[in-house]
Design goal:
Oligomer: single chain
Largest sheet: 7 strands, mixed
Low-confidence stretches: 1-37
Distance between the termini: 16 Å
Mean pLDDT: 87
Strand content: 5-15%
Radius of gyration: 21 Å
Helix content: 40-55%
Number of helices: 20
Length: 434
């Protein structure tokens, strides 16, 4: 579990919020948690988060957007939110996920920003409050409710929905008269053409996000076939096997590796964007995968010197966005439980989420809040607005998806075959049934 949590923490934090950590170094607890005790309101609510209050001189869009919604809650409710902050140097070998789990089990804070594998496990243990009665919950997108409900309880609500897609150099596709791929077969053909024309590695990859291909191909029909609840229940009960769903996804990924369209050795050592990003921006690699915010961020892919477009991953149903999300959760036994619930109701209200979406240009958790996106993201946004997507983190599944899939895909990068990967997932299913 420790290994999985380390993977899950790194992946999900990069995916949703901790891109902000890379952009701005954390301050020490002594710098961020000092509050003038004489000026404190009587009500205090404690939040545990991977980030503290922004330094006055720091420029960080995600932090500022979050703080604006927290400040709104403080003002409307007449209380103060104290930040208890994770820093790797303070917790040594413990990941953010490890520390959150320990603190919630010990009732040390009131509410938390959690990765999906953590709120899934703690929700099963009954340690997280049901948020479905909050006013803000009434306005949530269905994808948020589906991903964050455990045993019938909504245990987490995010500021944003994080969508992953293929970032493609449209100029290179046009140069070789290639249409943007929507199916696995079309992507293979594009890769063949690129490789024959001198692009040694058509798809730039890293060790975190290759599972997006497996999710898209394997679960496209599960999430878009009109029978999702029944199919998930069949997996949870053991009536259906994960290997039956995942075989085409793992087979496709293995073909990409075997044909040299992905460099498995490099991908295994590359960190997200830091590894493959330079070649993509230099137009040496036509395709990479990344999350929505990377297209909005100047320091990532926001200033590409070519026509960049973000599309879904190939599937039998066309280009498929992959969706994951972190979420805010309230400790069931929190000292200030009701106040914490009230804070979430304000900071995740449509009013607050509108501010957050405008500031950070993301897909809001609320169905009522407009999504702000650059032109490059429009193809991905169109599919999401159609209600077409695959969940990479689904708290309703007994087998945690995102972190486990990442671990097994990394085994494939080191030589594991399709059957080995499928057997590994079936073992996880057997363990969940026990």
């Amino acid at each position: 579990m420790t290994k999985l949590r380390k993977i899950g923490a790194a992946i999900c934090c990069i995916a949703a919020a901790v891109c902000t950590l890379a952009a701005c170094g954390m301050s020490t607890p002594s710098e961020e948690n000092l509050v003038d005790k004489q000026d404190q309101p009587k009500k205090i609510v404690n939040m545990f988060s991977p980030m503290g209050k922004t330094d006055a001189n720091a420029e960080n869009v995600a932090r500022t957007a979050q703080e604006m919604t927290l400040s709104m809650a403080e003002e409307k409710l007449g209380l103060i939110i104290e930040y208890n902050t994770y820093t790797a140097q303070d917790y040594k070998e413990k990941t953010y996920d490890d520390v959150c789990t320990e603190r919630i089990r010990s009732n040390l804070d009131d509410f938390y920003l959690l990765n999906p594998d953590v709120f899934q496990q703690l929700g099963k243990e009954g340690l997280l409050a049901d948020l479905s009665g909050l006013d803000c919950a009434k306005n949530l997108r269905e994808v948020v409710k589906a991903a964050n409900t455990v045993d019938g309880k909504l245990v987490a609500i995010p500021h944003e929905v994080v969508a992953y897609g293929l970032f493609v150099n449209k100029d290179l596709f046009d140069q070789f008269d290639l249409k943007l791929p929507e199916t696995p077969e079309e992507l293979l053909e594009c890769c063949r053409v690129f490789k024959e024309n001198g692009y040694d590695t058509p798809i730039g990859a890293n060790r975190w996000w290759l599972e997006t291909f497996v999710f898209a191909i394997s679960y496209a029909n599960l999430y878009n076939g009109g029978n999702t609840a029944a199919e998930v229940e069949a997996l949870n009960s053991g009536a259906a096997k994960y290997s039956d769903y995942l075989r085409p996804g793992f087979t496709f990924l293995k073909e990409l590796i075997d044909k040299g369209y992905i460099d498995a050795q490099k991908a295994y050592t590359y960190e997200a964007i830091d590894g493959e990003g330079a070649d993509f921006l230099a137009q040496k690699t036509p395709i990479v995968m990344a999350y929505w915010g990377a297209a909005n961020t100047d320091t990532l892919y926001g200033r590409a010197e070519f026509d960049m477009q973000v599309i879904g991953f190939p599937s039998s149903l066309g280009a498929m966005p992959i969706v994951s999300m972190t979420g805010y959760s309230v400790c069931e036994q929190a000292e200030h439980r009701e106040d914490a619930l009230n804070v979430l109701d304000v900071m995740l209200s449509d009013e607050a989420l509108q501010i957050f979406a405008e500031k950070k240009q993301v897909i809001s958790a609320s169905k009522n809040v407009q999504t702000y996106c650059v032109d490059a993201l429009q193809p991905l946004n169109d599919r999401i607005n159609e209600g077409v997507y695959v969940l990479a983190s689904n708290a309703g599944m007994k087998v945690e998806q995102w972190g486990n899939m990442c671990l097994i895909v990394r085994d494939m990068l080191q030589g594991a075959g399709v059957e080995e990967c499928l057997a590994a997932f079936d073992r996880l299913q057997e363990q969940s049934l026990q």
